[in-house]
Each structure stands twice: as structure tokens, then as C-alpha cells.
């Protein structure tokens, strides 16, 4: 999973233009699925069928993790060739100064986000947050050349590949939620060694960062009986409240709240206890900002679960993850799917 995640992090996949990363995911899924297809918006569907027994109804389980990433977009080119930019998704402009970026114009260009050296700033300026409208990207060309290569609306991603840290920790850009996609692959691998009856539809979704749109489309297409969304949540840091963050060492996080089905949530927690898989529990009293919100209300409604991976520094260029959580999460979800045998409909009751 580490190698696959590193590959995904290197590929561009900004919300609304995920074609390149979708192709890589489809190729990887094909080694573990009975069928792989991609829809017109580049949601990738990997279908894996279990072996039904006794003529019982087979549950259709949809797994979802989004492939898109937050980024920037060109909104103007000034008279000196600097690119004025806006956000795609939840980018915090405080982290942008002096970052390296890639501009996807008529050709791929390396650039840097401009910043004023401290020597040239007025007293007090270093304590101010630079507004998005005042940020620019420098690609090193004159205005005439820039206008030949770059158009309004072209996308800009960050240049931060995976970096290995101590132990099983890694960091880089777009781990949210390429880590979830890597976990999808892990689930498919785990199922190869298990006996299960369900029909599994693993979906790498698009446009989550701009409103969980890909999950809305793919859940309508997949028509699942059960939905499992995989996304990241906030890992503990010294400057964030412990009430809003989760340990980077104590296992994946299972979310409880009105967006999640209580019976299925309890069942996956029972599975974790049965197999000694560490879990943490989070609560969310409103619709989550994940694919779970779209899956739950698709068609006539889909009972859903949310599995979360603790992640530090979300929506930055140094998102930090414990790779052990991907293995633990993949194993737990696969074991939960394997437990969906005769009588699984009873778990859907409140």
C-alpha cells in the first residue's frame, strides 16, 4: 500500500479533473476485481463478487474513498507574467507562501508562490495573513511567454511527494484521501484470503473536496445495500484541542452520529473487538464532510458507516499519516464484509 499511495500522491487529481489518477487506480483495481469500470466523471468502480450460498439474498456493499485533492486555479495573468490564483477546495492561504507548485498549462510548468522577503516588509507585516487576492505564482517566464502556455482556469498542484519519517509515519500532499484509496486496494487484497458472500463495489470517488459529488453519482449508480465511506480525520497535534483530534497510534476511528447507521456501526466495532483490532470512536452530530453524507441519502437511503484515518496537518503540503492504520483499517473492513452472511438484514434495524 505504501508504494501505491506514493504513486497516487505524485499524480494530479484536482476536483473536476481527476482523469489521470483515475486511470492509475483503475489499472490497480483490475488485479483484484471481477470487473472495473469508469464513469463519465471518472469515478472508478471495482466490482468483486463473493460466493453466495443457500440462495440467500446477497448484500451489495459500496466502499468509497475520494481521489481528488485540494489545489489552486489560475484566475488572471498580470502584466509581468505572474499568475493570480484562487482556491479549489479548502486551501488555507497561510501555508502557501514560498511553496513550490506545478502549473498544468499547455505544458507542465514548475512555479513558486511569491513571498516578500522580511527585509522588504513593513513593521508588523509579518504578523498579517496574506489574502488570496494578493498571492501570485511565478513560473519564471515573461508575460508574453506565460500567456502562450497558461490559460485562465488552468490548475495548479503542490510539489510534495511522499517522505518517509520515523517508524511507519509518512508525509506529503494529497494523502487526503489517496490514503483511503490505498485502503480500498488493501480491502480487496484482504478479501482474497477470506470467504465472503457479498458483492463489493469499491469506488474511488471524484469531487469530494467540492461537495461530495462523486459519491452522490456513484452511490446512485451502484445501488448498495450498505455503504462504507473511508476518509481522514484530524490527528493529534500540540496546537489543536484533544476534543477534536485522535491518536496517531491507537487505531483507526469509527464515527457515530445521525449520518451513520447505529446497527452497522456497532457491528463493525464488534468485529474490531472480536479480532483485536484497535479502534477509536468519534462523534459528529451533523452531516459529515465526507462521502458518507452523499451515500446515506442516495436513492431511497443507504445505511452507512464512516471509517476515518487520523491525519495531521490536513489540507497542507505535509499531511502526516501512520501507514499501520491503513493495514488495520483494510483488515477490519474486509472482516466486516466477510461477516455479512445469513441474517445480515437484521443489522439494518435500529
Give structural notes.
By secondary structure, the protein is α+β, with helices and mostly antiparallel strands. The protein folds into two domains: 2-69 and 173-348, Aminopeptidase, CATH 3.40.630; 71-158, Peptidase M42, domain 2 (Elongation Factor Tu (Ef-tu), domain 3), CATH 2.40.30.40. The protein is 25% helix and 27% strand. It contains eight helices and 17 strands. It has helices at residues 2-10, 19-29, 143-149, 175-191, 213-222, 262-274, 291-296, 323-338, and strands at 35-38, 44-49, 60-66, 71-77, 83-88, 100-104, 108-113, 136-138, 155-158, 163-164, 169-172, 199-205, 226-234, 252-256, 279-283, 304-312, 319-322. Strands 1, 2, 3, 10, 11, 12, 13, 14, 15, 16 and 17 form an eleven-stranded mixed beta sheet that branches. Strand 14, helix 6 (262-274) and strand 15 form a beta-alpha-beta unit. Helix 1 packs antiparallel against helix 4, helix 4 crosses helix 8 and helix 6 packs across helix 8. The protein is globular, with a radius of gyration of 21 Å.
How would you summarize what this structure contains?
The chain has 350 residues and is an alpha+beta fold.
